[in-house]
Amino acid sequence: xxMHVPEEFAATSRSGRNVLLKFKPAEFAGxxxxxxxxxxxxxxxxxxxxxxxxxxxxxxxxxxxxVFFQAGLVLADDGSDTVLLTRTPDLRQANVASLYDxxxxxxxxxxxxxxxxxxxxxxxxxxRGKKVGVEYATYGLTGANARMVDRALDGFCVTEDAxxxxxxxxxxxxxxxLEHVRMAGKLADAAVRAAIDATxxxxxxxxxxxxxxxxxxxxxxxxxSGGPLVNSGPRALYxxxxxxxxxxxxxxxxxxELAGSHCRYHVCIEHTLVTGKPDPRQRDMLKVAKDALDxxxxxxxxxxxxxxxxxxxxxxLDDAGFAKARYAACGYALGCxxxxxxxxxxxxxxxxxxxIMTPGMVFFVHIMIPDASTGLTAGVGQTFAITDGAPEVFSxxxxxxxxx
Length: 404
Fold this sequence. Notes:
Elements: E1 9-12, E2 18-21, H1 25-42, E3 46-49, H2 52-59, E4 71-75, E5 83-86, H3 91-96, E6 102-105, H4 114-124, E7 131-134, H5 143-153, E8 158-161, H6 164-171, H7 175-198, H8 206-218, E9 229-232, E10 252-262, E11 265-275, H9 280-299, H10 307-319, E12 331-333, E13 362-371, E14 376-385, E15 392-393, E16 401-403
Parallel strand pairs: 3-7, 5-6, 7-8, 11-16
Antiparallel strand pairs: 1-2, 3-4, 4-5, 9-10, 10-11, 12-13, 13-14, 14-15
């Protein structure tokens, strides 16, 4: 098995700590400078970071601590210190594996209010009465914690939703990021191959999940931020995974949708598997799905509006008689993401989305035809990057109905 173990880069933080990073220091310096430039263009004096993806992209800080109150502070001024407010269990990795300049800890107690600690940091940095952006649109900030932050900052400074500031920078991948995306694609292919090889009647469909995850981890990948989705039988028509195994039957169908993850960068692929004799109707459905996917890849060009891809999806499926079965969108952006999802949205690929595709953007397009009238499903999906020409597709697996 080919191993894709990522390299780590030794560096020294501005505060003099020796750290190990996921990218070279210059990559992070460029990201931080661009973020500060966008803050100034927006008229913001600082950004409070709650999205774990932002922590990681800006400083290499990788943790599950975002399930608690955890905030980063980035001032718009070049050369100013970045500050992380976190909990004790995250202190060590913040110190040795992130470029945060100043790391503070809040302590659990009966009446602890880390939002007050955050306000004290903002006051220390001269942000009283200033305009501060907040990353609200993230799993790293619960509704309860958002209300706590708003109460703490009410009357102290002016806040606005700036969830798009870092996301805007993350949308277009650098050359170094695309290398991780390519590795994630290889891991995703290996995972699907392992699931196909494991498929046979009489076993729980969770065996396929186990085979897929084992292949990814053995190949040097991470546990993906979602899935794998392995739905068999009538569950193959579901749009989400479901708990509890189901035994694969002699005549059955399995929808496999999963993401390979390399240094938190994800590549998704989707395929349909069958046991027994393939139903000719399902073969025809798969051909329709593949045709839509192929036409979308042909149209995925820099300078084109993202929504045009879903226009193709709708037309191909509607013309084939699947208007009631198709989804209202056909994909979304991918990047470095953390649980609970590999979806790096916005943007979604829906009809009318005006976003202009740019080289370096990475999208997952999946064509799902869950036909409730027949109980059959056909699903295919691939991830690709926008380039100056044809998109770069991150999967080598043939798009076909896999007979196991």
